[in-house]
Amino acid sequence: MRAALFVTCVNDALYPRTGVAVVRLLERLGVEVDFPAAQGCCGQPQYNTGYRYESEPLLRRTAEAFSGYPYVVAPSGSCVAMIREHYPRIGAKAAAEGRGTELADLAADLVPRVHELTEFLVDVLGVTDVGACFPHTVTYHPSCHGARTLGLGDRPRRLLAAVEGLELVELPGAEECCGFGGTFAVKNPDVSAAMGADKVRAARDTGAEVLCGADNSCLAHLDGTIRRAGASLRTLHLAEILASTKAPASREATPR
After folding, report:
1. CA 241, 246, 252, 254 torsion: positive or negative?
2. Burial of 214 (0-12, 13-18, 19+ CB in 10 A)
3. Nearest residue to 11 via CA among 177, 219, 158
4. Residue 249 confidence (pLDDT) above 60
């Protein structure tokens, strides 16, 4: 099986270890992984702040970068949600304005091939036990795009529950937003910070060593809150946990 990694901007710029972990994990499961160098931003920041026309070239570039791949896998529910939910809308709007169906056609071709990582593992590969080992206490925060837009449900928890040595503890109020929300955190910093503090407080109360998530954008927000609080809790992307094995420590995930 062949798949392309859509690493996303946040991971490319700030958390490249997550991208490396996805490749290591998928290759361990027998997937041939490519990394199209032409990929870039999916256009979510532009679209979410009202710049629809500026997002159109990014739709085109993303679709062209991943053309021909049967599967496109991304460790980010928010970016997958952008492609799945908004690319068709961008294409339909362009067509309604009399600018042709190119964008709509590109979106229709790309959308069915794009999968969030846990979707790909559980629904396409049909696995929950990926052979991981991570002897730590972990609590999981379900980011809004994954939980609400993509409907990931219990897929991430099922994957974590199958990890050898991992003790999974439930996060109180897990369904509540962490306060990041992309540009929401910039436009409403006080509200965003208060929501982040509530989420971190709940995570600390679990006694977990690691706060895990499937979106590094949300984890970046929470990690900053944790650091300012001086807490011992650490954040880590789910992909890095699933890629961890009993190999030497240099290849194991280290909570940031």
Report:
1. positive
2. buried
3. 219
4. no
Q: In the prediction, which pLDDT does 181 show?
A: 80
Give the position of tokens 């798949």.
3
What's the pTM?
0.92
- pLDDT per residue over 167-202, tens digit each? 999 999 999 998 888 778 778 889 989 999 999 999
Instruction: Give 197-228 pLDDT, tens digit per residue.
Output: 999 999 999 999 999 999 999 999 999 999 98
Helix axes 189-205, 216-229, angle to 10 degrees: 80
Q: What's the CA gap between 125 and 67, in Å, rounded?
A: 21
* DSSP states of the chain: -EEEE---HHHHHT-HHHHHHHHHHHHHTT-EEE--TT----SHHHHHTT-HHHHHHHHHHHHHHTTT-S-EEES-HHHHHIIIIIHHHHHHHHHHTTS-SHHHHHHHHHGGGEEEHHHIIIIIS--S--S-B--SEEEEE--HIIIIIS--TTHHHHHHHTSBT-EEE--TTTTS--S-TTHHHHHSHHHHHHHHHHHHHHHHHTT-SEEEES-HHHHHHHHHHHHHHT-S-EEEEHHHHHH--SS-GGGS----
